[in-house]
Amino acid sequence: MTVITTIEDLRILAQKRVPRMFYDYADSGSWTESTYRANESDFRKIKLRQRVAVNIEGRSTATTMVGVDVRMPVAIAPTGLTGMQHADGEILAAKAAEKFGIPFTLSTMSICSIEDIAAHTKAPFWFQLYLMRDRDFIERLIDRAKAAKCGALMLTLDLQILAQRHKDLKNGLSAPPRLTIPNILNMMTKPRWCLGMLGTRRRQFGNIVGHVKGVGDMGSLAEWTGTQFDPKLNWGDVEWVKRRWGGKLILKGIQDVEDAKLAVASGADALIVSNHGGRQLDDAQSSIEALPAIAAEVGSKIEVHMDGGIRTGQDVLKAVALGARGTYIGRAFLYGLGAMGEAGVTKALEIIHKELDLTMALCGRTTIGAVDRGILLPGTFPTSG
After folding, report:
1. Which helix or strand (DSSP H or E) is residue 44 part of?
2. Could you tell me whether strands 68-70 and 63-65 are parallel, antiparallel, or unpaired per DSSP bridges?
3. What is the pLDDT of residues 226-262, one digit of tens each?
4. Is domain 7-375 given the CATH code 3.20.20.70 in the classification?
5. Quick one: which of 6, 103, 2, 12 has its CA closest to 338?
6. Is 276 in the active site?
7. For a tag site, which of 10, 108, 180, 313 has the least CB within 10 Å?
8. Annotated catalytic residue: which of 86, 276, 305, 353?
9. Burial of 154 per CB tally in 10 Å (0-12, 13-18, 19+)
């Protein structure tokens, strides 16, 4: 039996258990994947300062994100097709997050619906919105999130157009997936996954199919989604969403200081420094490199969060030291989900939490609020200007 000690252990197990087209969908970036790789590797360049003979009893990793009490400054990021990593994947991840004491964010492009998550959890989850051309559908989607008592709406700003991801093209990933002979043969080697999928009715985009006129199955969905991402998205639309929603608003996809200023002006409650996990603009800054300048410029006016490349509790600590009030994990929890279902997501959270707690202690800090740049070795981290 494999002893799971790291997120990498979960990744290896997920790669064995999840069909190639769905594993690759999660574990890939756009074009050359340079931004995707930099998100992770740039964390390794930042070095920590070890401190000794400091009283580190009574530690706590607890804090808040947009006013929500969290066990650690980590939330589950919205990820599309989560329910294809494991049957009922979004439900399982939401339950694991709720039990652990951190927020779960459901993607617009999820397999399980808003209503599915609401029926299986008690804690208010967050909902991520793509602003599409069909504004009637978007209005009803926002209303459904309200009806489910979602605690925050997360508006993604960096997917006006879809960048190319080579692995998806090579694997024939589409809606519905192309069942080529290689794909069928690959799925036959994943019996655990296949049995799970046979045992659930949730195998299509639950937030969309049946909720859009003329979209009743995966075939008609492909035609609809191909024309729906809105290249005209602008800050006026952000204001419209804020009015329509009326609750806490988080803006995802900020990588530039000027855009961060506009996010503040929009009245949003938080922004996420994010490059979409390296899945959109290639050869862009990593999220952790972009974070310090944005935090320095607007951190006193809006809550600054970040995602991209987090695989360890050390990464979480470094992000907090550089100005993030919260972080998000996407691939890290997907690996756990693909490997072991709900137990795997819980394991991923436990790994990151333990690494965060012990590393914070070894840096001489006992609370998240006391973490600052003083825990980082000078000259090894990006500056704010």
Report:
1. helix 34-45
2. antiparallel
3. 788 889 999 999 999 999 999 999 999 999 999 999 9
4. yes
5. 12
6. yes
7. 180
8. 276
9. buried
